[in-house]
Amino acid sequence: MIGNLNKNSNNSLNANSSLAFKFMPSRVFGSEVVTKTFKVLEEKPILEIAGLDALTMIIPRTAIDLGQNVVYGVETFFRETLPMLPNPFMPGLVGNAMMKAKGYPGLYTNSNTLRTLHSAWINAGGKAFNPTAPKRKIVERYMREVFSNSTGVAGHNKFSKLEGKQLKRIVKEATDIALNRNNLTDKQFRQRVSALAEKYTQATKAGGSITVNIGDREFSTNSKNLIRDTITAADQIFIKEKPEKVPGIIDNLTNFFKTKANVAIGSSIALGASIQPMITYVSKKITGKEGFTGYKDFRTVDKPDINSSKDAQAEENKGVKKNLILEKAAATGGLGLIMLTSMGAFKKGGLLRGGNFKKFRESLELKGPFAHMDVMRFVYAGILTGRFWAARDPQELKVSVARDYTGFLNWLVLGPIVAKGLAQVIDPSLLNRSKEAIKTANPIKKLGNWLSSTTMITIGERKARDAGLSQAKQLARAAKHNLAMIGGLGYAMFALGIGVPMLINKYIIDKSREEQHRTGNLYSTKLTDSSQPLAFTRVEKKDDLFGRFTRKMSSGA
Prior knowledge:
Elements (H helix, E strand, L loop, with lengths): L1 H7 L10 H4 L3 H4 L2 H12 L1 H22 L3 H12 L3 H18 L8 H13 L12 H13 L1 E4 L5 E2 L3 H16 L6 H19 L5 E5 L2 E5 L1 H16 L7 H28 L1 H13 L22 H33 L14 H7 L9 H17 L4 H33 L4 E3 L9 H11 E3 L2 H7 L5 H49 L14 H9 L2 H12 L1
Antiparallel strand pairs: 1-2, 1-3, 3-4, 5-6
Helix pairs in contact: 4-5, 5-6, 5-21, 5-23, 6-14, 7-13, 7-17, 8-9, 8-12, 8-13, 9-10, 10-11, 10-12, 11-12, 11-20, 13-17, 15-17, 15-18, 17-18, 18-21
């Protein structure tokens, strides 16, 4: 199989197939510096998420919203900065602490992965294993059982698995690491796992999308996590405990994984959802005013007296509050549907098509030192829900829905799709495809098939598949790959940090304020002189650099 892959996976790769790339500065986009940067982000996606958050949500959004008024800009800064703890870092921190307290530090499998690996251990003769006199052959059979039943996507509807000498070498090295884990530092262990995962990818030309099938169980993973989890499960459970105790430990751990997910995700959502109410409370205390702070004249315009009876005013306020609650509920429900859709709830066998709640719950179990994408989607949706319910008036809710719906989609859904789309245009061989394209005239079905069956190849996969090409062609391929990823990040940065905030401020907030001035319906209470914060007053008088910069951006929009 590997020999066939070498024959047909790279022959079609033509670095000069596109006229645009004949003149592209390959040495810039394909440089090792750019490639290594994306390699770090690929191996540690949490850095990409945090960096993307800073560059697309915190810095530009704060700068643009300062152009509305300084109070709103300060709110934006804290609204976008503080959630960086609960999402994406907190779930991993809580989960890791719970596993360490449980006595299994570094065991990152979820329940399905652990049970599948246990099946491989049983098939390898694990019931006869004696921890006091360990037999290497049983451990080797376990490693072989896992790796020989692991299939990776290695191109367009091409699949590969370890065979022959490559399988024997990977099995031997994985067994060595498992039996000598106590003699390795954590850093040495991570280095050896990374090196072995790279060898796996070089041998199979696959590494990003791997499926392990043992009997009636299977799980999906990547080469690095496959090596790490297979070895760690053996080291901390299978070759450490007596065979008769292992099934009970597996049952106990799989139940614990569910508890860990509930605590880690629940605490993250609770903290994240409370951030916006705290921000609005502090703003009220500092400014002495209630209502949405996003209007440019928030600090200078007071709500006029209404020439109507107190009973009429009370009845009007009651109606407004009731409608606002219904609108908040609708906003929450809409976001919930977006979140569930992004997690595959509408796919065949998904939560909303067949009611597979067990599978959905398993998808929220942690399976690494940091939160994975489904956990981040779930936590982020909870944080945004907190913003909806903290909205001080209907206008702020509209702004939050426009900003946070698009923020969720661009950050966690559309950014990666844009990168895949660019790869499809630039060079389709930069994509792995697990299924053939369907033949249909329905564009929606075609798009759905493409979205569900394609993934961007990893840097390791690209290097393994390009090994037989000339240096110039390898450089051009690296440039194409990096450019597609840069395009995805660039889109997210512009859409999240600049485009959406400027459009919201100009076409939602400012237009709404014009209407409120015409009707006299201003959502703010009187600001007394004694309640004006000195810091805000000084900033406004000084006409600071941020103010001048953001006003120019707003006027240019």
